[in-house]
């Protein structure tokens, strides 16, 4: 297991890769505003013709995430494509011809944020039901935390679903979510509680390989391969472990979900010690790079200067 290189910014590694897979929440924004330096960094990457995939465990569709990013100031010219677990789930539900989606049924009890049904809207073969007793399967795409608690609101529903022996599909495996500067339990936590009760859950999204395999296929269409790619994320459990399982280099940002682990570190020694603790907690998988946040890092070069083209 190699050592992690500490970087001033993404400019330190930009020449080494043709493609950048970038997590959305915790790297680009906190749900309310874009982090400082993000837009300039994306502009610099696009100026160097890098292929950029925004990869998110969002239970919403890609187009909805595109609109969210646009409202936050990240327009479609700053990246190439958005891949979400919600979009992947919707495609599976629409076709129902592969893996966990085969013969899943048509009546769905949906757990989402704010009653959002966009993940299944327009699907003629799926009907959302309000009564668990009528459902063929359980779909978990969001959570109303912290307003609705796991114990008082979700657990009674999960116990009923277990009694009904419903298969569950989790369209967002995140256990924790960022809401502004605060954290709350995510859909992945609901799914894991369902497993605790004896339920069967199939996960779509990071860190599971299918969504990374989809990204690899998109890159191969551009003749870009995993060895020419880096994943930039804020979570060890989803971003770093998932990409590493596909032999993709990784870059962990310190200002996202693991901000608390690095808070108060005043020296490189202390940062290294905090990182080593995270690595031990996450199956000894070590990020290739560590950076404060998604920023370019150095004085912006003359745009007329030609960068070295990677073969």
Mind sketching the topology for me?
Layout: E1 5-6, E2 19-23, H1 38-47, E3 51-56, H2 62-72, E4 81-84, H3 85-95, E5 107-111, E6 127-128, E7 137-140, H4 150-163, E8 167-170, E9 176-179, E10 182-185, H5 187-196, E11 200-203, H6 209-220, E12 229-233, H7 236-244, E13 249-253, H8 259-262, H9 268-281, E14 289-291
Parallel strand pairs: 1-14, 2-3, 2-12, 3-4, 5-6, 5-7, 7-8, 8-11, 12-13, 13-14
Antiparallel strand pairs: 9-10
Give a written overview of the molecule.
With 311 residues, the chain is of the alpha/beta class. The protein has two domains: 5-57 and 207-291, Rossmann fold (3-Layer(aba) Sandwich), CATH 3.40.50.1000; 103-203, HAD superfamily/HAD-like (Rossmann fold), CATH 3.40.50.1000. It contains nine helices and 14 strands. The strands form three sheets. A seven-stranded parallel β-sheet has the order 1-14-13-12-2-3-4.
What is this entry, summarized?
The protein has helices spanning 38-47, 62-72, 85-95, 150-163, 187-196, 209-220, 236-244, 259-262, 268-281; strands at residues 5-6, 19-23, 51-56, 81-84, 107-111, 127-128, 137-140, 167-170, 176-179, 182-185, 200-203, 229-233, 249-253, 289-291. It is α/β, with parallel strands linked by helices and 311 residues long. The chain folds into two domains: 5-57 and 207-291, HAD superfamily/HAD-like (Rossmann fold, 3-Layer(aba) Sandwich); 103-203, 3-Layer(aba) Sandwich (Rossmann fold).
């Amino acid at each position: 297991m190699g050592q992690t290189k500490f970087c001033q910014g993404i400019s330190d590694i930009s020449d080494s890769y043709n493609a950048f897979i970038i997590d959305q929440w915790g790297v680009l924004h906190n749900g309310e505003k874009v982090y400082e330096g993000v837009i300039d960094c994306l502009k610099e990457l696009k100026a160097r013709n890098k292929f950029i995939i925004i990869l998110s465990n969002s239970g919403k569709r890609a187009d909805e995430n595109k609109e969210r990013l646009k409202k936050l100031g990240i327009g479609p010219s700053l990246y190439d494509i958005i891949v979400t677990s919600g979009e992947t789930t919707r495609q599976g539900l629409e076709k129902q011809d592969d893996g966990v989606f085969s013969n899943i049924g048509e009546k769905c009890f949906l757990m989402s944020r704010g009653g959002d049904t966009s993940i299944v809207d327009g699907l003629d073969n799926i009907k959302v039901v309000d009564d668990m007793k009528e459902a063929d399967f359980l779909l978990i795409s969001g959570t109303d935390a912290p307003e609705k608690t796991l114990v008082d609101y979700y657990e009674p529903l999960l116990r009923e679903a277990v009694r009904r022996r419903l298969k569950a599909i989790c369209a967002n495996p995140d256990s924790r979510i960022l809401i502004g500067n605060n954290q709350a339990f995510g859909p992945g936590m609901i799914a894991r509680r369902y497993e605790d009760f004896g339920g069967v859950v199939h996960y779509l999204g990071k860190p599971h390989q299918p969504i990374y395999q989809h990204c690899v296929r998109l890159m191969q269409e551009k003749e870009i391969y995993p060895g020419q790619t880096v994943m930039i994320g804020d979570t060890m459990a989803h971003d770093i472990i998932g990409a590493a399982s596909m032999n993709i280099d990784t870059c962990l940002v310190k200002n996202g979900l693991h901000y608390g682990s690095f808070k108060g570190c005043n020296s490189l020694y202390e940062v290294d010690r905090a990182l080593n603790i995270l690595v031990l907690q996450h199956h000894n998988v070590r990020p290739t790079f560590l950076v404060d946040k998604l920023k370019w890092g150095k004085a912006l070069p003359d745009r007329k200067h030609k960068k070295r083209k990677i073969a």
